[in-house]
Task: structure prediction
Amino acid sequence: MTKNQAHKKKLIQAKFIIGVLAGKGGVGKSTVTSYLAHALKEKGHRVGVFDADIYGPSMRALLPEDQPPQVQGERVFPATSGGISVMSTAYFPRDKGPSVVRAPIATQIITQFIEEVEWGTLDYLLVDFPPGTGDVQISLMQKLFFNGAIVVTTPQELSLLDVRKSMKMCIQMGVPLLGVVENMSYFSEPVTGKRHSLFGEGGGKTLAKEFQVPFLTDLPIDPKLGENGTPLFQALAQQMRTQLQEEKEYKIKEEDRYHFSIEWLDGKKSLYRFSEVQTYCPCIECLGKKEPLADVEGEQIVRVGNYGIQILFSTGCSKGIYPFSLLRDLDR
Result:
């Protein structure tokens, strides 16, 4: 949790709040969200889906309601779809829906959804983000305790450009990146099973390597993905659960003013000097390794979920978030 998160009021009672982002529309982000929700529900978890894409909500079509939202006084109870709680602006009457609204009004609508919807107690709340990196996305990250984010891309270079922006936004806002999903990755011939990469290949893995996060899965082009892809989404849900559980297992300790240590899951203990780690600052202002400053002390270490740590140094830049994967590599 970052220092900013420590001041937030926990408005939604969910063990884990997960953002699903893509940066641009049309890559299947909402479809991935809906199938992931089903996979978690099938494992017995209490699941909610918050469709935060107020300009182009699609969750009502993907998760048709068994029961519509209910209004009781000033509280709104979400719709239900197969045991999954769902809230979306798509439930608004068509002539009153916010299809064309300015950013401040859009942010106000998001705030109302967060503060006035009575979700009950959930194990997982999946937040289907709108495309882009503007006011609405930032407001979501400021108001909710996100345990992590999954980013969805397609192999095309244009998609990668937009997804990079979303991933950088997550890092800047202190939301841990759980990994990358590449959608529409390939087409399999029905008879032979031979794969064809229609839109290029390797884009998702390139992003994962660039940001030093896991590549979670590649999903095929398949009209029956909801049926045929069940094992894929069960595996994706398991990877997500494993990472979230591991969040509490790294032991981080300040050894003295100049050093800290991390005890990893395999029992190995790594010792670091604050001044040396600072030279790898990944923020945009510190691109590239720099010469270490003398006598740099660590004043505070703030854990950023299962993604990494942010360090408040006595001098020099303290903006960067250092991924655990980078820190582990520094001690190889």
Q: What stands out?
A: The longest strand covers residues 177-188.
